[in-house]
Amino acid sequence: MQGKRTDRIAELIRQCIGQNILSKLRDPRLGFVTITHVSVAPDLKMAKVYYTVLGDEKVRKSTEAALERSRGFLQREIAHEIKMRTTPILSFEYDLSTEDRFKIDEILKKIHNQDQANAASQ
Q1: Which residues of the chain have pLDDT under 50?
Q2: Number of structural domains the chain divides into
Q3: Handedness of CA 97, 101, 102, 107 (dihedral sign)
Q4: Global pTM?
Q5: Where is 120: in which H helix or E strand?
Q6: Are 46 and 88 in contact (CB under 8 A)?
Q7: DSSP symbol at 53
Q8: pLDDT tens column, 77-111
Q9: Quick count: other Cβ atoms within 10 Å of Cβ 73?
Q10: CATH number, domain at 35?
Q11: Which of 53, 88, 95, 94 is nearest to 71 (CA)?
């Protein structure tokens, strides 16, 4: 039963953070960021927020700094919007899985193109 509760809370936190980034954060360092998922500890004291951002390494670093700077604000907003006994402490991590998916897609496209070229030459 604990797993379902943490999943529901993680989804509420993801929605809350995403909405607040979209509507309330005005940090110019913040790039086009997407909160991909949130992982909440079983005791609900910590939450890892995974995000992606469009752009190069420089944009990613500036977005990371903006998110770290706004951590307290986002925790207060979560406490205000989600009624919990304690608000989880947020930590932000860049989600590498999206980049990995793009790399895999590129490899599969190359293989597919090579197969088509081999079939056409035979």
Answers
A1: 1
A2: 1
A3: positive
A4: 0.78
A5: helix 97-121
A6: yes
A7: E
A8: 999 999 888 899 999 999 987 777 777 878 888 88
A9: 13
A10: 3.30.300.20
A11: 88
